[in-house]
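A quick aside before the break. I want you to see a complete sequence-to-structure record at least once, exactly as it would be stored in a machine-readable document. Don't worry about memorizing anything.
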Amino acid sequence: MLIIGLTGSIGMGKSTAAAYLRQNGIAVFDADAAVHALYSGAAVPLIEGAFPGTTANGVVDRRLLLQSLMADTSGFARLEAIVHPLVREAERTFLAAEHTRGAAIAVLEIPLLFETGGDKLVDVTVVVSAGPQEQRRRVLERPGMTDEKLAEILSRQMADAEKRQRADFVVDTSRGVPEMAAQMDRILAEIASRPAGAYQRCWSGG
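That is the input. The structure line, written in C-alpha cells, reads:
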C-alpha cells in the first residue's frame, strides 16, 4: 500500500484535492477533522489541564483556547505535544484499516506534514500551492478570519516555497478544479508503479 502525504499551507486547496481523491475511491485521513474529534474526546482533559478554563461541557472551547494561545504563543508547543501523538495514533488506525482491506493507496492529509516530520512516514509527498495573493483572498473569505489570525497561522507554517522545494510533486490549484484534477491524475499515474515501503517501515510494527 502506497502512502501519500498531502499537504500545503492554509488556503492552498488541500480540501479540494482531498475531495477529488475521495471521488476516485482513494481513502483520505483528514488530520484537521481528527483534531476536531479529539477536542470533544480524548484530548479534552489533557487540554484543560494544560490550559485551565478552555473547556466547557466536555469539549474544548476553540475560541477560549485560541485566546489563551494568542496571549502566550509558547502554548502552541504545549498544545502540539498533547495533540500530535493522539493524531498519530488515529493515523495508524486508519492506515491499518486501509491495509487490511487491500487498498493500493492511502492518503494522509496533514497541514503540518513537513513541520512535524510526517514526510518521513509516507512514500510520496504532494504539496498543493497557489500564489500568495490567491491564498490571502481565499483565507480572508473565511468567517471570523482576520489579518492577525492569518499572520499567526502563517508564522507557524513552513514557507510555501520551502514546501514546494521539498515535495515530490506540486499541484497548482490557482487555475481551477479541472486543471487541479488533471494534475492529480498525472501524479496518480506516475506513482502507480512506485515501490511502497512506508507502511511496513513506519506503521505496521513489522
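Two observations worth writing down. The chain is about 50% helix and 15% strand. The beta strands are 2-7, 27-30, 55-56, 59-60, 105-109, 124-129, 169-172. We'll return to this after the break.
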